[in-house]
Amino acid sequence: MAASDLGLTDQLVALLNTNYVEGVPVYHLIIEAAMFLMVIKLLFFSSKYKAGPNIEKLTAKEEDDLVNSWSPEPLVKPAAEVVQRPERVIDGMAKTSVTINGKEKLNFASFNFLGLVGDDQIQDVSVKAAKHYGIGSCGPRGFYGTIDVHLALERKLAAFMGAEQAIMYAYGFSTIASVIPAYCKRGDVIFYDEGVSFATQKGLIASRSRLVAFKHNDMEDLTRLLEEQAESDRKDPTKAQSVRRFMVAEGLYQNYGDIAPLDKLVDLKFKYKVRLFLEESASFGVLGKTGRGVTEHFGISVDKIDAIAASMGNALASIGGFCVGRTYVIDHQVLSGAGYCYSASLPPLLAKAALEALEIIDDRKDLQQKLVANARQFRSDLRTALAAAKCDVSVGGWEDSPLVHLRVEGGSTNDEADATLDAVVEEALGNGVAVTKAAYIKEEELHLPRPSIRISVSGGHTAKELTKAAKVVAAAFAASR
Hints:
single chain; 481 residues; alpha/beta; Aspartate Aminotransferase, domain 1; Aspartate Aminotransferase, domain 2; 3 domains; seven-stranded mixed beta sheet; 45% helix
C-alpha cells in the first residue's frame, strides 16, 4: 500500500516504526508533527487581510487638506507666564568685584570661595599651557583625548584627598550625575537627603533605582527608613540578596548652606551595610583645616566613603569635576561614567589651572582660614543689620559656611516671597552689591526648597566689603516691605 493511501494516523504509526525515530521519545515526534501541520496551515490556508468595500480612497486635494489642517501637540507645556528679566552683562573677570553693564559691583553671587579667580600665579601657568597644548582637546578621554596634564591632575587630586585613585570629568554638573548611575541600577534602593542639589537629583533619576528620600539632615528619619528596609530584607532573604543599598548626601548643601552630619551617616552606613556617596562641590576646598572637605572636618578616613565627587568650578576656580575613591571604584567609571566616556576631555589649560590651584591651597593655608573668618563676620554683620532694620528674615546655613540663604519669614506665601526677593536683588544691585535669588526648575525639582537669596562669601572679600554688603542687603529688605 502506498503512503498516500494511508490516513494521517497510520502515517504517524509508520513513522514511529522506522529506524529514523529509534530512541526518540514519542511525545517529541507528536510535537514536531503538530508544528509541521501548523506551518502548512499558516502558509496555505490562512486568510489574508483585504481592505473592506467601505474604505474610500482620498483624493489628492483631500489629502492636502488633512495635512494642512494637522497641528502637532507641543512637546512641553506652555509656560504660564514669561518673566522678563533685565539683561546683565559681565565685562571682565568675575572676581570679588565684577563689572555689570559697565558698572562695578561687589560680587556676592559667584562660588569663588577662595578668591582664586584672576590669581596671577594661575593666570601665568594657564597662558603657558594654552601656548603648549592649545585650547581644546577635541576628543573624549578614551579616544585620544587623554593628555599628560589630565593624568597629573588625577594623581594630584587623589594625593590631595588621601584616596587611592581619582577620575576627572570635563563638566562639574555631569560628575555626580554620572557617578551615581554608573553603580546604581534598576532594582537597587537609594536613600537620599531631600536637600540634594539639582545635579545630584539628575544622577538619582538616571540610575532608575528605587528612590527613598529622608528629611533634610534628619538622622532619625533616615534610621527609620533604613530599619524598614532591613525588616523587609529579613522577611525575604532571597530578594534581599539581589538588592543593593546606597546613601547619597552632600558635604555642604548648596540649597541650604548647612553641613551634613557625616559621622552619623558613616555609623548608619556600617550598621545597615549600605554604600555611601558624597557630593562635595560646595565643601571641597572649604571645610577642614586644609580644605580637604567634610571628611577632614569630621576626622573621618576617606576610605570609609565609597565615592566622593566634586566640581572644580568653585574653590579651584577652574572647570570640570572629579571623583575619588578606591581603585576598583574609579576604574569602573572609565567605562561606565557617561560624562567621562562621551564628553570631550577637559581643556588642558583648565586642567593646568586646577593643578596650580591645588598647589596654592597646599602652600597658602591662610586662604581657607580667611574664608571661614569672612563667613562668620558676614553672618554676624548681616544679623545685626537685619535686626536694626526690623526685617523678619532668616539667615540660613552653618556658621562657617560661605553659602548664606536668606528666606522671608512671617507666613509669606512662596509667590509673595519670590516677589520680595526679586525686589531685594534689584535694590541691592542698584546700591553696588550683586546677589542672586536661588533659581530652580520648579517642575523638575524632586523637593523644591523655599524661595531664598543665596549669598556666596569669598575669602577674597575684605572686612569693609563684608560690612557694606550686609548693610546694603538689610536695607534692601527694609525697602521691599
